[in-house]
Amino acid sequence: MKESIHNYDDLLEMLDTLLLENSQFNWNNFYANREKQIPFFVNAPDENLVSYFDQGFFHSGRALELGCGPGRNAIYLAENGFSVDAVDLSEEGISWGRERAIEKNIQVNFINKSIFDLEHEKGTYDIVYDSGCFHHIAPHRRMSYLELLNKALKPNGYFGLTCFIPNGELGGANISDWEVYRLRSLQGGLGYTEEKLKEIFHDYEVIEIRKMKEIEPPNQLFGVPFLWTALFRKK
């Protein structure tokens, strides 16, 4: 691989590689053991996602889920009238999601690639939903993330998000953006404050930002108290 920086894409690739070289984490390995006691391995949608339907924000249309993992939220969206594209970097996660969709006889278009390699027309989706992907995005990739979001969403489309609070039970590194590169690590996932989320997504109308409700398993909903839930609308 050439190690020269001639343009913005080269810079992004260099920073991606620096962080990856220092990480021992592998998403395929993470999803390979389905018996692990991981809270979001349950086959139940986020409680906030269900609430957006209950409150009348979501009805039907086209939806994109970023970092879908085993597909629990993508499947729920498809069950409730959406044509769903669901993308994840992990082949193991995508395979698990496809199996779950087949078991329920639900159609979801699962895509095994980086969210930054997606190809779609501008203004394709009524909803973009992200449950736990954003806090694994390095600071230098936030501009790419916002570009993806702005291109994907229709005018007045909704963006739903769940992400780590700072110093949460299972993650939420309370470090600055600069510190990520001093440490060459996201420390398992970045924690965000409400103010930081509003700052990053300042071009979007804030519909709701709150802590996720805790839902005791087993249950038809998923909820843990160490995540933010947020709903934004494209202006």
From TrEMBL:
GO BP term (any one)? methylation
What InterPro entries does UniProt report for this protein, alphabetically?
Answer: Methyltransf_25 (IPR041698), SAM-dependent_MTases_sf (IPR029063)
Q: What is this protein called?
A: Class I SAM-dependent methyltransferase
The alphabetized UniProt keywords are: Methyltransferase, S-adenosyl-L-methionine, Transferase
UniProt domain Methyltransferase: residue ranges? 64-157
- Organism, per UniProt? Robertmurraya kyonggiensis
An annotated Gene Ontology molecular function: methyltransferase activity
Xref: SUPFAM superfamilies: S-adenosyl-L-methionine-dependent methyltransferases
